Amino acid sequence: xxxxxxxxxxxxxxxxxxxxxxxxxxxxxxxxxxxxxxxxxxxxxxxxxxxxxxxxxxxxxxxxxxxxxxxxxxxxxxxxxxxxxxxxxxxxxxxxxxxxxxxxxxxxxxxxxxxxxxxxxxxxxxxxxxxxxxxxxxxxxxxxxxxxxxxxxxxxxxxxxxxxxxxxxxxxxxxxxxxxxxxxxxxxxxxxxxxxxxxxxxxxxxxxxxxxxxxxxxxxxxxxxxxxxxxxxxxxxxxxxxxxxxxxxxxxxxxxxxxxxxxxxxxxxxxxxxxxxxxxxxxxxxxxxxxxxxxxxxxxxxxxxxxxxxxxxxxxxxxxxxxxxxxxxxxxxxxxxxxxxxxxxxxxxxxxxxxxxxxxxxxxxxxxxxxxxxxxxxxxxxxxxxxxxxxxxxxxxxxxxxxxxxxxxxxxxxxxxxxxxxxxxxxxxxxxxxxxxxxxxxxxxxxx
Length: 448
Ligand code: S3P
What we know:
This protein is of the alpha/beta class and about 450 residues long. About 30% of the residues lie in helices and about 30% in strands. The strands form 6 sheets. A 4-stranded mixed β-sheet has the order 22-23-1-24. A 4-stranded mixed β-sheet has the order 2-15-17-16, with helices on one face. Strands 4-5-3-14 form a 4-stranded mixed β-sheet, covered by helices on one side.
């Protein structure tokens, strides 16, 4: 669990031209879900390409605590013997989800309609994050939750003994909330309906269908109406986890801003609920070729060739694109600092409740590196300084946030002077091989 250990300062110096192939580990969202859906199926689910980041390992431990048998059989190869829908047993101890909002929220949903009690906690970052967005809709099933002020962890959840199905319109665009409600709906009789105005990542819907649940999605005037028929018998699956487009963003963006770079990033998801960053980069003038479009692990993917792109211009990022690139704004704001002109990111207030307040963390760090930014509750504006223009020479605070740490280490690769981060230890939550992979391409990242 990140943030429980020592801070790990890291430093990134100017890199030479990047070259080679970046083999990105498995998708974090799909890895959590593969373990959780596997635990809900009766029989053995086999997973390949599982992300072995700390967030996912914490979810694996949690599934064991609820009664599933989860074993690692080789690198990225895992087996889950599930207990069936409604088959969770009561854990003997507190469930520690470490740094992972996805882990804790999906697991709360999964146990919410089984008559057991579980207490959840996490690291200092997760204990600050709001859980009411999940426990409010879960209470409609009959679930009770008692947490700290503001719906914060540690929190005890008492599953509903006689759950009723729910119809819930999401008040925020959140795949975690959507998934928690659908997972709770699995053990409620009848139809559970979730309505989302803007589409968010749809891995839960795709995997529920794959595991044999009856689920339909209709587009209506209210948005996407997702209907799940409760109490299915989920059938175990073989899940091949595709590579994580959110992790792929870091070497991709590094190659765009480091002079002379030319790299390949194979198997990057083109799922429309995940590819907003890549659309945005192309609009800015990034030199990215999308080769070999195909399906991998049930997701549309392409192989990327990415080249140094000195002609990038700042743009207004369409607000409605936010859910499809919500985790990518930190690294986009770094690219924006190396483009010409202003990049305006609106409709981004959800960034304030991620692993850190990402608007504040990026704004303060970029300012420390000599970049002009403007910030409102729901807006971040970065004034680009052109290729190689960022002065750097600062230490940026990461606030236990892996994506903030990786974003500033990428910035250091192209800035005039080195950039340090006060704590790179959270990188293990999502991209444990980041340092070696980036240095293999030509980065000069070292421990401080
Ligand atoms: C995730 C959903 C997003 C994203 C997170 C992963 C998921 O969170 O930021 O990294 O796997 O469902 P929200 O649902 O809170 O937007």
